[in-house]
Amino acid sequence: MKVEFRKVPLNATKFEISSNSVNFLGNFSKISTKLAKLDGQIEGKCEVLCCKCGDELSLQLNEPIELLLSDGIYSSDKDEELIVVEVDDHMVDFDSILQSELESIKSEYYICDNCKQNNCEIDKIY
Ligand SMILES: [Zn+2]
Predict the structure, then answer these.
(1) What does the alpha-carbon distance between residue 116 and residue 99 come to, in Å, rounded to a whole number?
(2) Which of 18, 55, 63, 122 is geometrically suited to a Cys-Cys bond with 42, CB 3.0 to 4.6 A?
(3) Residue 82 lies in domain
(4) What is the pLDDT along the chain (126 residues), one digit of tens a residue?
C-alpha cells in the first residue's frame, strides 16, 4: 500500500496491511508539510533463526511501532525522540516500512528452546 505524501490526511487515519502471516496496523497523520507520524503495531508470526544452532523458530510478534515519516531528507535542529524514516519519491510505502521493521526484528539474536535448555544444564553443572 502506497500513499502520496501530500495526500496524507491531517486527522489520524487508520491503515492496515498484511504480509504473509504478519499484520501491520495503526494510524498515520500529517504533522507538518514535510512530516507525518505513524503510530501502530506489527502483529503475527515471523520465522527467525536460532543464533546458536540455526534452527528456525516461530516468533510471536506484538511490536509497537512509532515513527516519523519525512518527505525527503530529514533535517531538524532539535533531536527527535522518534525514529525518522525518509520517504522516497514523495510516496509513503507501508509495505517497505513493514519489511524494514521485520528485517530489524530478524536481525536480533534469538535462542531456541533446545539451546535454552542446554544452557540451563551447563549453568547447573558450573
Ligand atoms: Zn538453537
Answers:
(1) 28
(2) 63
(3) 2-125
(4) 999 999 999 999 999 999 989 999 999 999 999 999 999 999 999 999 999 999 999 999 999 999 999 999 988 777 778 889 999 999 999 999 999 999 999 999 999 999 998 875 555 555
CA of 11 to the centre of ligand 1 (A): 46
Owner of C-alpha cell 505524501: 5
- The pTM is what? 0.84
Q: How far is the CA of 36 from the centre of ligand 1 (A)?
A: 40
All three cell numbers of 73: 531528507
Separation of 113 CA from ligand 1 center, angstroms? Answer: 7
Give the other-Cβ count within 10 Å of 41's Cβ.
Answer: 14
| 25 contacts 12 by C-beta, under 8 angstroms | no
Structural domain count, the chain: 1
